[in-house]
Design brief:
The protein has 1 helix and 17 strands. It has 2 domains: 30 residues, no CATH class; 208 residues, Sandwich (Jelly Rolls). It is 7% helix and 30% strand. The strands form 4 sheets. Strands 2, 4, 5, 7, 11, 14, 15 and 17 form an 8-stranded antiparallel β-sheet that branches. Strands 3-6-16-8-9 form a 5-stranded antiparallel β-sheet, with no helix packed on it. The longest helix is centred in the N-terminal third of the chain and has 18 residues.
């Protein structure tokens, strides 16, 4: 073959290029231990302690969003009552995502969640939900116990942006905790975005350490654009994930 003569070659169609990107490249990266989604190494597994902040009592200045009794602080995207099932002190994902009625800026959030005890599906189809800050920036909820997926899409990830430092997931059905400090990105006086940040502790293990939030909304976010305040959003991804003991502290 003459390296300067491409007359015997034909262009690859966009669909074919997409297939090659998803297939061959993804396979090559997976073989090498990387992710095509974030091109990051699979986080090491760290077994968390027996308990950390499970059942943590809200401090005096907390805004309680769910105490196991009702979802009066929540609504659907079009303002209707939250349809999720409530029993035994938890709310189970059902009938679409829900938003807080109130909007928030910088916060400290405590939230507890559990993926289904009966394992169904794999990868992103297993125990999937998400906590969206200001309806824009997602910390992933996923059954990541012995469930390989792309690193910036597993439990504790800032979805599509930053993989967790380690995988601190519990077994399916066991209650897990997120303790998250969120500083929202803001518009500067010059019109440029001043990045915010995420710090995430998963089951007592630091998995995101002051990771920047540059203002771009996460995939599937119900809202976009940098704003001073916004609602907390819990995602319905088609899996019956459970939530309990949700409260936050305003930091500004």
């Amino acid at each position: 073959m003459n390296p300067t003569d491409l007359s015997s070659w034909t262009p690859v169609s966009p669909d074919r290029r997409s297939f090659l990107k998803r297939g061959a490249l993804a396979s090559l990266l997976a073989w090498a231990g990387f992710s095509a989604h974030g091109a990051a190494k699979e986080p090491a597994v760290v077994t968390p302690g027996a308990t950390f902040s499970h059942g943590a009592v809200p401090p005096a200045d907390a805004v309680v969003l769910f105490d196991g009794k009702d979802l009066s602080a929540w609504q659907t995207g079009d303002g209707k009552p939250a349809p999720w099932k409530i029993e035994n002190g938890y709310a189970e994902v059902h009938g679409g995502g829900i938003n807080t009625k109130a909007e928030f800026g910088d916060i400290q959030l405590h939230i507890e969640w559990a993926s289904p005890s009966v394992v169904s599906g794999k990868d992103q189809g297993r125990g999937n939900s998400g906590v969206y800050f200001q309806g824009r920036y997602e910390i992933q909820v996923l059954d990541s116990y012995e469930n390989p997926t792309y690193p910036d899409g597993q439990a504790g990830a800032f979805y599509g942006n930053a993989a967790p430092q380690v995988n601190a997931s519990r077994k399916p059905g066991e209650w897990q905790t997120y303790d998250i400090v969120f500083h929202a990105p803001k518009m500067g006086a010059d019109g440029a975005v001043v990045p915010g940040s995420f710090t995430v502790i998963h089951n007592g293990v630091l998995v995101q350490d002051h990771v920047p939030i540059k203002g771009n909304a996460t995939t599937a976010a119900p809202a976009k654009g940098v704003v001073p305040t916004g609602p907390l959003h819990l995602q319905d991804h088609g899996n019956p994930v459970r939530y309990r003991n949700i409260w936050l502290r305003k930091l500004n």
